[in-house]
Structures
1.
Amino acid sequence: MARKTPEINSSSMADIAFLLLIFFLVSTTMDIDTGIYKKLPPIPEEEEIDAPKVKQRNVLAILVNRNDDLLVNGEILSISQLREKTKEFILNPLNSADLPEKKLTTIPFFGDVMVSKGLVSLQNDRGTSYEMYIKVQDELAAASRELKDEKAMQKWNKKYADLNEEQQDAVRDYVPMQISEAEPKNVGGKK
Amino acid sequence: MGKFKKGGSKELPEISTASLPDIVFMLLFFFMVSTTMREVELNVNIMVPSAKEIVKLEKKDLVSNIYVGVPMRKFAKTMGTEPQIQLNDQFSTVDDIQAFIAAEREARKEELRNKLTTSLKVDQYTKMGIIIDIKQELRKASSLKLNYSTRETAE
């Protein structure tokens, strides 16, 4: 009755699969994008020239010139010192008169605490290298993270990243890190 | 003593290759799932700077890339050796960025348009001037989510 159909030779299947495999290996990438996340300030609607007045003691002015030198509140620092400087600025542990003021704020979980009014202002030259800019951003982010971790450790004995959302919000309110990037200036002359 | 068979006359049985396609297909599926298609061909050399405080960029389909770097050797004659901006597949100027962002928005679904992130892939030796200009253009295009692409510092 029914004749037996001859079996299809599948020895070339491997070759076909290899071809496909090689095609996908060549045409795809595996890299995962990582980076520093930032939010740009929107362009003001009207020409608002009168920026909110901030007291000098509340500002940590970071200037980077075209030779990638760092000037923090009139003091030449190296990049490795920036983190400690920023942390000291935000915390103001000794309540010294030339570091930022503090304001009594009520924060969930923590109650009434003194929160720093400090503001980091970052300004760089057009000739500053991108590498240096990223380094400064990285150090500031690291300082912020370390402060948050410290507070989270004191309160919950956990790292900031392991807290739940409400706790994270509270910690963020406790040690705020405001970074304002000034409009660029051409310090150090034309390039 | 014992009896020994004389070898030599018997041949080894051939190894079956019937399962080879299965193995290769498994590899194939692994690579298909874990990789993404290369979107653009780079015309500029980019070595992004390294940093420690990095986050992973989620949702690749909501990311538009701006590349900045020195043109590759083969373009050196026409484009020079100063850092250039690359959008999609071609060299562009700062003025093209607003149109580029508009086009990127247009290509996404309406409800996802304001979730678009711009990823700046910039060579580490670029000067900040060009990046400041790009940032200003992005602000004008009100595309405010920005990601500076970096690689992780090797400890």
2.
Amino acid sequence: MNEPNRPASPVELHHELTRIWGAHPGFGQLAAVNHTTLGRRFIVTAFLFFAVGGILAMLVRAQIATSHSAFVGPEIYNQIFTMHGTVMMFLFAIPMFEGFAIYLLPKMLGTRDLAFPRAGAYGYWCYLFGGSILLLALAMGAAPDAGWFMYTPLSSKPFSPGINADVWLIGITFVEISALSAAVEVLVSILLVRAPGMSLDRMPIFAWYMLVVAVMILVGFPPLILGSILLEVERAFGWALFDPARGGDSLLWQHLFWIFGHPEVYIIFLPAAGMVSTIIPVMAGRELLGYRWVVLAAISVGFLSFGLWVHHMFAVGIPHLALAFFSAASMLVAIPTGVQIFAWLGTLMSGRPRFNVPMLFLCGFFFIFVLGGLTGVMVAVVPFDLQVHDTHFVVAHLHYVLVGGFVFPIMAAAYYWLPHLTGRQPMFQLGHAVFWLVFIGFNLTFFLMHLTGLLGMPRRIWTYPESYGWDWLNLLSSIGGFVMTIGFALFVLDIVLQMRFGPKTGRNPWGADTLEWATPVPPTDYGFASIPIVTSHRQLAEDPDLPRKLAAGEGLLGFARRNWLETIAVDMITGAPRQILLLPGRTFLPLGTALATGLFFVSLLLQVYPLAIAGIVLTIAVFWLWTRHPARTADLGPLPVGDGTMLPVHTESGHAPSWWAVVFLLLADAALFGSLLFGLIFLWVVAPGWPPPEVLFNSTAFALIAMACLAGAAGLGRLALRAARRGAVGWALVWNRFLAAAHAATLLLLAAILTTAPDPTAHAYAGVTAAILVYILVHAAVGLILALHVWQACRRGHVSAARSLDLMIGRLWHDYTAVAGVIGLGTILGVAAAIGQPGAG
Amino acid sequence: MTLAIRPAFLLVIALGYTLWGGALVVLYGVLSLGCVFGWEEVMLGPLTLQRGLLLLLWLLSVLVIALLSWQTCAWLQAARAGRPTPLARFTLWLAAACSIAAAGATLFMGLPILGASACI
Amino acid sequence: MDRVTRDMNLRADVVLLDLSHDRVVEIGFLHGARLIRRLAGAVACLTVPLVAGCTGPLSTLDPAGPAAAAVARLWWAMLAGAGLIFALVMICLLLAYRRRTRARGSVGTWVVGLGLVFPTTTLTLLLGYAVLTGERLLPHPGEEVLRLDGTARQWTWSFHYPDGGPAIPDGGPLVIPVGRPVDIHVTSEDVIHSFWIPRLGGKIDALPGHVNVIRLQASEPGRFGAQCAEFCGLGHTQMFFWVDAVPEENFRQRTEAWR
């Protein structure tokens, strides 16, 4: 095939690409899937939630500013502090860095968009709808009120009979869909969708940080999602899971929550650290000192943060040696943090640092975050933690870490990238005032709070007597809180003024060397008119003329071919170009899917279960429509990319981004399944009220046949793929038919086992066993749906020797389901045998 | 020796810390089981069964990750002897450094086995 | 001779800080370490303006027992170390802007030396100190230990002695003897609560279905506050009781009276 015709001029290219990549105005904006638009939406929405969380914080400070306050009673106060934590963690911090990552990453990586624009849009709508559920509940006075970590049994039905706890469990799970979809999207995009030539050692440091964060989300969020599902099932259907009177254990919730909850802190910190690592070298006028050490530190923090969840549970009665393991691990995480801090300081010391508003906020970051880190080491010390745990000392510590480690870098980032977002120059007169108000207000609020905690003030009390001597400290903290709020209000004003009146900026106002500054500012929908070929990790510094060349279409894909949205996918390690990625354009499907998903979640919340089932069916049906985008009835073959070379399109070249996405989704799935198995073993060893009165004993034959069916399905999936790759689509159809039958048989067998299994409401053993069975059943059901999809694709001619991606993805799923099914059913049989038949001795 | 760096090599970078995580889970798990099954009361010479087992598992995991570090360092050395690309140097260095860091983390984490009470 | 002089000096310092003559005599015979801790505590608290000191019924900085004292000592030590490290970072940041000449951007100095070796050394020492301190506070088996069983429910505690001893009336002050270790075995009948007498030592959670043990000891008579530390619902704030530490004879008398 010949090279497509190049547009006559850069302006014509710009118009062509804008027509293809942009969303229509007005109502059509709801169909936007573009990363620039979505990134902005995430950032703005997260900031609105930050305002809500901030107002809630002000209410908290108003209430405890003085002793004997009569502002609100405990009913309202409990909702306020629960929602403050929940909003700030789930609706502000995570979506905020997701927004920055979605906005920045494709541009930094020198590509036109992320790998899955529709998934990004779907994630955004899930976030918006889930967050709205929580806010609506707050407005109606039915917000969650059991604390943001929702400890059972306080959050269980007997002690929280209202809808409040359900709002948390269902709303947050809904929101977490966006975290998971963003994580998969970011991970696959960083690994595969970069500019050609961008090998791992040339990747911008922010991409390394986000790579680590994305993996952390995939492993860290599933335990909480599992915990939320189990707790909701206990609340709604009475299953025994966390109830100590029925063989459950409140500690199971704590483990599941904190296996998520501690990595979460670093999931929030690392993106901010990535921004710090990006901005500091620019301001210091030199490269980042110890690039590979910083990468090592980011990876180390990512892993180590999974080994310290128990430090939130030092007081629950765990043996000293176990506490000491986690104490040691908690101290360990300070070491890579130290490496980063000193790499940044060394960069500044050996450069010629400029002093401006972003740098001012970074200095604030150093001041506050280092203090938070130091108190973090203190609370990692077991005896000290036993004193200050659950006091205002910990409140002070966590705000130093999160505000210092996230809010200050984000404000630095806001001032740094605002010229990029708006195309206008900053007006910094207000920026200094913003900094000093927030900085002084913050320290006044939270520095004193350390002492308040040491003087014995516990968290979450709504009033206190004068005689405790906490009055003056709390009053000053409250005053500081209001000073800080004025600072944030001024920040909003400053941003609005800049967006409205700021003078237009030229390209790359800071003299940065990362590729996001090679796009036009404000960025166009397509990002780059043509894709750069990267030869250095400081591409923009070495080729300052790059932006013009790219706009003129001198890079790769500098043309508008057949109205396609094209970008390039590369080899993970070397960055060698591998595939042309054909992306979907504007579509209402993500919004529709999120609405269907929302129907499911809202029906669950209102306990209208038939409608919830309708919601699931509808969601699957809409997702089915997503597959129409890449489907083709004929091979395209290799296509020219603009430099004389030819590349295949992603649907015809094996391991496409969507295949990798399923790999990473299965990683998250495995983390969820692992947590479920951990739950069974944990309860068995630790929970009171074991052994259970009744075990699953008469289903061995069914379970063994189900395992055989699942293994058979995996084998058939492989046969079908092999046939398709030979071009024998007819045979693929045959194997696929058997595959569907195997999954259907598994469904029936598991349903049969479930009907004869012990009553899940009677004992936690039966509850977790049933949960494992349901888990495998759901996987077999999805396997069946995938088989139906492959059937349809084969019948419509979408499958050929080259176009076998659907079958490859199917094979992954069937393999995983077989392994999980065999492990799950094997565990159930093994535990049942080990517990033995009660009454038989 | 030249080593072609394939995507699977990313797993080698993650392997050391994955083993560290495994060691943490195993140590914590064995400790919990030992306290339930009374291994702290069984004496094996100067040590209790509990502590002996924990010491053994700890040192074993340090050893395994140290071997991994040795291997990744050997790859790095071998590559340096040739004329490696910056990418190869970076990737091999990262694998070696992550393995060494994981070995150090495992060593540090297990130090309390030498002193802390196992079941109180 | 040497020691006497040192004690005299310390005593003189204490006189400056504490105007109560009784307490000076008492403190004068304390162990050196405890004296230093008190001195450091007093100095630190006096530096905070507008406050009468680090006292208060729930203050962890006004310890009245060996466990709380060990933790307070740990706190002052860590505060000093943290202060130095914080100062180091701030000085580096300041120097980055104040220096005329640029520092050499050496990965060895900055990243490996200051970033890796320095914290590793400090943290190893801290881990040792922490584990040894923690070890001393554990409820190791002992002869003299008094056992007390506490049960939490929303939003009150009840206590009794397991060996048929007298119960303590609900809501009444919990009475413990001075100078004798007490193991409190806590559990809960409903949600999670946490047992905490800050002036005596750390906290332990009361979990439904589990019994946890904490060892506390009062080294001086007095009345101490005890507050539920784990959020437990609407009445969490009010889940408070007093603890009276009384000399052994008084302890017998008072507990006899409830029989």
